[in-house]
Write a structure and sequence with these properties.
globular, six-stranded antiparallel sheet, 6 strands, binds nickel (II) ion, 3 helices, alpha+beta
Length: about 160
């Protein structure tokens, strides 16, 4: 396992479409392992493969309830209306904004072995799922932000 460099906002790769994973092999497992290690080292709650420079549809998330690995994830249901809350991104360090996200989502994906899985998330997990899956289509949170937080607001977080 290895810590990988996190691509920062402004790098064009963050705007590109990630490709579907077709081989559930050692290379994918190494990528997922490295992504998790990189996310934890950076104290993040989610990371998409594009953020380590790999245009593949893979994300890792841990909102404090254990590691979730998702390959080729798709949001299949949104429920409960939208919730406005603070959001940031490891590719935009030190910046936060208020972003509307669905209260609940259902995501269909594959695990690292190619087995279909369904993940349901509320609140922070729903937010992380939407945020990371957006990265796979070249979207960042600032595309959806209602307003960015001021320095004073960030100090109070
Ligand atoms: Ni992000």
């Amino acid at each position: 396992m290895a810590i990988r460099n996190i691509v920062k906002e402004g790098d064009e790769i963050l705007r590109k479409q990630s490709r579907e994973v077709t081989a559930f092999d050692r290379k994918l497992w190494d990528l997922l392992d490295d992504m998790a290690q990189t996310m934890y080292k950076a104290n993040g709650v989610g990371l998409a493969a594009v953020q380590v420079g790999v245009l593949r549809q893979a994300v890792v998330i841990d909102v404090g309830k254990g590691l979730i690995e998702l390959v080729n994830p798709v949001v299949t249901k949104k429920k409960g209306g939208e919730v406005m809350d603070v959001e940031g991104c490891l590719s935009s360090p030190g910046e936060y904004g208020m972003v509307p996200r669905p209260k609940k989502v259902e995501v269909k994906a594959f695990n690292r072995y190619g087995k279909p899985i369904t993940v349901k998330g509320d609140d922070l997990l729903a937010r992380a799922l939407c945020h990371e899956i957006d990265h796979l289509s070249g979207r960042i949170f600032k595309d959806l932000v209602y307003r960015m937080l001021t320095k004073e607001e960030i100090e109070k977080l």
